[in-house]
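I would like you to sit down with the pair of lines that follows and say whether tokens and residues agree.
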Amino acid sequence: MKQRVFYEEFEPFYYYNGNTQDWNMEGFHFHKNYEIILFMSEGASIYINDRVFKVKKGDLFLINNREYHKTEGVEGKEYKRFVLMFDPEPIVQLGTTMGYSFTKYFEEDSEDFIHMIRFSEEHLTEIIKLFQKIEALHLNCNTKHDNMRMTLAMLELIVYVNQQFDFLTISEERGKEHELILENSIEDRELIEQIKKYINANIENKLDLVEIADYFYMNKYYLSHYFKKKTGFTMSQYISNCKIAAAKTMLKKGYSVTETAVALSYNSDSHFVSIFKKMTGTTPKKWSQE
């Protein structure tokens, strides 16, 4: 379902550790900060651009300031998380000076990369300690020295996360685990089913890629690639198949060729007959008489 996207303003540094009952964001938001979110409860969902993940305790996500996103908790349950947001500009400048890219995994944009790590219990304990270190310094940040210590603690956390991502890229076992997370955590099946249901519910309309992409708030090129990859059909092939299936049902019920063509928004009778014959090997009239 199409949802609104809105810009939200945050301070250059934002920290949150807590839980919320029945959490559900109003829509997708984006902001100028980079964000690290560590989930501490099961079952919540996070939507990042065109991807949807069902999260587990210990899942950590990196979100840059070009990605619109939203989170949803589970109805009736507490949604627990750590959230850290920061202005990337000074961190990037510092990294340039030091010859180290603090933000490289926030900015990784290859198609098969997901900005997510699922921590084991051992590593989860370590990352929680780093969040809590930032929290303690944040609560008692009164001087420039305190602010510097807090910044250093934040950089320590980012470096730790980068190390884990580095390990994913060089470890075959962890790499396979990461691929499995991508395959299983993204709700591909659910999203594909939603798209199919939308097409069938609106089969009487002309339907095209742009309309469907707009409805699901997806980039049309990504949707085209994504749908073909998951179903084996192009979007136009699937729509044509559905229209022909609907046409067969109508013809069997006694609708005329013209009535069927009009009801399914074909350009003309001849257009409908041409498509029907191409896909079935016979004309609508002959098919209805069989």
